[in-house]
Backbone:
């Protein structure tokens, strides 16, 4: 397509990531006008030697993805995140996996016409075979098709997620950028009568 001299060969993984990012940015703009969800919601799915756990929480849009390759007992998750206005630079720690996980979360929020913060934890097991980042998109989509578990508190939701992961929850939490911020925020709802 295009003028012959201007054609460029783009590696497939880059083009998939670019599309995930472009579609995600378009949806991101729309969900910023939606009201927040009310509960802490957990979705999860395991497939293709991958485990994806998604936590949605009442908040303005923020997104964090963590990925841990469980090929050693001392696995340390890689992490990238964005706040309400989105990313300004490439998610270099997780690369395409970040954008592949973000898109289904945004699609889900658009579908339910709500805004939320999201934490996506992705475990890759030793049996993994190289299928590309699309697997995270499809595993996340499948997770979000399922009935969520709902909780009233962040602590209860995190406790449940911890049961669904092989890597100890503490390793995920110590790498998180958005959870410490979330825990330290005082909300107007804290001052309303119960």
Residues:
């Amino acid at each position: 397509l295009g003028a012959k001299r201007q054609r460029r060969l783009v590696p497939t993984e880059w083009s998939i990531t670019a599309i995930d990012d472009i579609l995600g940015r378009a949806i991101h703009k729309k969900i910023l006008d939606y009201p927040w969800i009310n509960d802490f919601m957990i979705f999860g799915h395991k497939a293709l030697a991958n485990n994806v756990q998604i936590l949605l929480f009442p908040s303005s849009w923020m997104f964090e993805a963590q990925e841990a390759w469980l090929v050693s007992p001392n696995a340390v998750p890689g992490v990238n995140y964005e706040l309400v206005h989105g990313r300004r630079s490439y998610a270099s720690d997780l690369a395409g996996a970040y954008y592949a996980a973000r898109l289904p979360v945004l699609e889900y929020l658009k579908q339910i016409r709500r805004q939320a913060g999201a934490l996506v934890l992705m475990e890759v097991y030793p049996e993994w075979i190289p299928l590309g980042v699309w697997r995270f998109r499809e595993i996340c989509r499948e997770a979000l098709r399922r009935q969520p578990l709902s909780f009233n508190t962040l602590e209860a939701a995190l406790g449940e997620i911890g049961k669904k992961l092989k890597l100890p929850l503490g390793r995920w939490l110590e790498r998180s950028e958005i959870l410490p911020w979330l825990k330290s925020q005082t909300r107007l709802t804290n001052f309303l009568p119960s």
User: Anything to note?
Assistant: The first strand starts at residue 40 and ends at 47. The first helix runs from residue 12 to 31.
